[in-house]
Write a structure and sequence with these properties.
It is a single chain. By secondary structure, this protein is of the alpha+beta class. The chain has one domain. The chain is 37% helix and 20% strand. The protein has a five-stranded antiparallel beta sheet with strand order 3-4-5-6-7, covered by helices on one side. A two-stranded antiparallel sheet has the order 1-2. The protein is elongated, with a radius of gyration of 25 Å. The protein starts with a strand and ends in a 5-residue tail after the last strand.
């Protein structure tokens, strides 16, 4: 209650409560929407980067002996600098660090599989990246890149995946 000119008024009188109610309602709707769109934006940017990485792997294989992809020795796990160097040497333009690019540098996982016909040639590979600042429950938190597709996945609590850029078989 407020006393003004000898008249006692409550906060319910006048436009104040209605205005504040509308403001708080708009804020309650806008903030979750903003966070959702921000996360989608981060995932989209990382998917575009993943497509670039996938393309540079093809360039690497085309230029190497036996059309081999990079070996695991050339691409150690959790090594954003090595990933950047290999990608940029083959036509990509990754930024100085994995964090600048939007990925968690300590969670880069690269797996190379030798070709059954020639063990000296890497015939298949899979690169797993995690997007910075996106909750594990969001589809796209984890991006898995291979020669045939780019797949976005959620963390362990949500077992969904969505494939992008799949090549026809």
């Amino acid at each position: 209650m407020a006393v003004q000119n000898g008249i006692t008024r409550t906060m319910q009188e006048g436009p104040f409560p209605k205005v504040m109610f509308y403001r708080f309602s708009i804020i309650a709707i806008a903030i979750p929407s903003f966070i959702s769109y921000r996360n989608k934006s981060k995932i989209s940017a990382c998917l575009a980067t993943a497509a670039s990485i996938r393309g540079t792997r093809g360039g690497y294989a085309a230029a190497s002996a036996g059309n081999s992809f990079p070996s695991e020795a050339l691409m150690p796990d959790n090594e954003g600098e090595t990933l950047r160097r290999v990608v940029n040497q083959n036509g990509g333009t990754l930024k100085a660090s994995a964090a600048d690019q939007g990925f968690v540098g300590s969670q880069i996982d690269y797996t190379a599989t030798p070709d059954p016909a020639d063990p000296d040639v890497i015939g298949d590979w899979k690169l797993t990246l995690h997007v910075i600042g996106v909750p594990e429950s969001n589809l796209g938190y984890k991006i898995m890149i291979s020669p045939s597709q780019i797949e976005r996945q959620a963390g362990p609590k949500r077992h969904k995946s969505l494939k992008f850029f799949a090549c026809p078989e």
